[in-house]
Amino acid sequence: MSSSPPLPSPAELLDQSNNVEQAEPGPSSVPPPLPPPPQPARTKLPTYNSIEYPGYISPNPTSVNRAIHTLGGQKEVSKSFAEGGKILELRLQPDNPFAHPVTGDVVGTNKLLVKVVVRRRKQVDRMDETEDGENEAGQSGDKGKGKEQGDGESEGTYSAEVMGLIPKTVRFRSMADFQYQPDEDDYVVQMRRAMDKLDVDAIRSFEFKPLQENYEEGGKSQLQLIPPPLFSRQGISQHYNLKQNPMSVIHSTIDPRTGEETRRYIHKHRIKGSLAPAAISWDSETVPTSPPQQILDARSQTKPHLLAKLKQLFEQRPVWSRIALINQFPALEGREIQNTKAHIGLVAYTFSDGAWRDTLLRFGYDPRKDPEARFYQRVYFRNTANEEARRKSIVGRRAGGTGDSGNTGPEVVEAPPDDRSSHIFDGRSLHSGAASFQLCDITDSLLVPLIKDEKSVRKEPDIADGWYTCHEFSLIKAVVRRKHFNLLQGKVIEDKDCADLFVPGGLTSSNTIVRPVGKKYLRKAKSNRRPVAPERLMAAELEIALRKGGEGGSNMGEDPARIGESEEEEGGDAMEED
């Protein structure tokens, strides 16, 4: 077994280190770094502007000058690029003032202007062409220029050189405007030409000639009108990508009189017929007594127990609003009736207009012949200002302590979303933002006497007011409108706050709109000629109390308008009647 060599002593190690320090440095074995490669010389390229001309331009200078002339001349072209213009007009008929130009947009681009030189040989014959092609191919290879070859034969030589940059370009992408050329012999057109030429004699001698009254149908108009400077502002065509509804199919019908076939797209479910209730207009002399045939054919889709309950409800009450009818059923059954439209179509019909519009009526029942049908009339108001969302935001701010907390009046009672009495209006509960109620479903203490007042019943029904007089029905709608929209604003108003509506002339647009209640009614509004006197408000409040109490005096049963007439004779500050 071999032994390891002895380790050097510390003295020997010190001698070796001293010898290394005293030794002179010699040449290094590491090669020095190479110098950087020479950079090619950089040249600043000039800039050019380009125009994508929508037409043919030959290399001949005359063609180029003519193209520049259609663009307005060199001055207009330079101006559009130098001054940052947005458009450049192209007039294909520069000498015709009635020809509308095509507009081009000046856009920024990052393009290069490249000069391409192509050298081609003369075509002498096939043999010479081949020999010349080989020689020229060799020469071009010696010169370092590119070449095009096809099927072994040289097609010519070309060279490319970058001349500069193109930062701006005019592009014509918009559609041309409609063109109209008036008669050149017309004296107005000649006057227009004279103004372009600054012909003073022609301008001074110009006179309007009498019009030629030519009323022949299809003939050219004799009105001396100059065409407008622009017919259409639509520059880019619209890509509609129109597609038919996937549920639409081509349905053909044949006219029984002429035998002509007509084809049109129709929804698949419309072919079988609509399942909506039968609808008639106010002018119809009779009312439906049975459902249409297409609804009878869909009876198999309905549930018998729901149909039986619907018929029972219509026997109890001949006219229902849709929401009132659905509220008579549990949630699941109500949803089933709404989804299967044949349920209602089998038991009721509707009016498309009139006082009972959009209500459901029992087959064979005509409300125009029954004065008791006035209780089933409907009042409806549109919530265009979205007062319900505004009221919720106000309530939220008040709950957070940042709103007005000075409202100490009665609070609005909000019904739950699944409430089955949303068709009832009591003046204090808010069910939804929509205001659609039948008069029989109104339980407000102020409105009930107005609805049941037999003195306001007509002898014949009206299309707008039904069996009520115009004044009485307008008064009912005004009270419902004020109370409902104040509920949307989070306020419950009392009966006395509607007293100004009972004053003669109170049924005006300024009084029926929603506004805060209180003493502001005594102020003179901008749209009112005179303020409502306090004594007249007291008289109106007395009239309200008498209607609610049913007791009478000398003037207790009189119409408020008559009371106002007597007061207007005594005093002079009454408002005009509506």
Quick recap of the structure?
By secondary structure, the protein is of the alpha+beta class. The chain has helices at residues 10-22, 61-70, 74-82, 126-143, 187-197, 200-204, 268-271, 293-297, 304-316, 322-326, 331-339, 342-345, 387-399, 447-452, 470-488, 499-502, 509-512, 534-549, 560-570, and strands at residues 47-51, 87-90, 102-119, 147-150, 153-171, 248-254, 261-267, 278-280, 319-320, 348-351, 360-362, 378-381, 413-414, 429-430, 435-438, 457-462, 466-468.
List the helices and strands and how they pair.
Blueprint (H helix, E strand, L loop, with lengths): L9 H13 L24 E5 L9 H10 L3 H9 L4 E4 L11 E18 L6 H18 L3 E4 L2 E19 L15 H11 L2 H5 L43 E7 L6 E7 H4 L6 E3 L12 H5 L6 H13 L2 E2 L1 H5 L4 H9 L2 H4 L2 E4 L8 E3 L15 E4 L5 H13 L13 E2 L14 E2 L4 E4 L8 H6 L4 E6 L3 E3 L1 H19 L10 H4 L6 H4 L21 H16 L10 H11 L8
Parallel strand pairs: 1-5, 8-10, 13-14
Antiparallel strand pairs: 2-3, 3-5, 4-5, 6-7, 9-11, 10-11, 12-15, 16-17
> Which range best describes the helical content: under 10%, 10-25%, 25-40%, 40-55%, 55-70% or over 70%?
25-40%
Tell me the radius of gyration. Answer: 47 Å
Class computed from helices, strands and strand pairing: alpha+beta
Number of strands: 17
The oligomeric state of the chains shown is single chain
Largest sheet: 5 strands, mixed
Give the overall silhouette: extended
Quote the distance from N terminus to C terminus: 135 Å
Helix count equals: 19
CATH class identity of one domain: Alpha Beta
Main location: nucleus
GO molecular function: RNA polymerase III type 1 promoter sequence-specific DNA binding; RNA polymerase III type 2 promoter sequence-specific DNA binding
GO biological process, one term: transcription initiation at RNA polymerase III promoter
InterPro entries: TF_IIIC_su-5_HTH (IPR019136), TF_IIIC_Tfc1/Sfc1 (IPR040454), Tfc1/Sfc1_N (IPR041499), TFIIIC_tauA_Sfc1 (IPR042536)
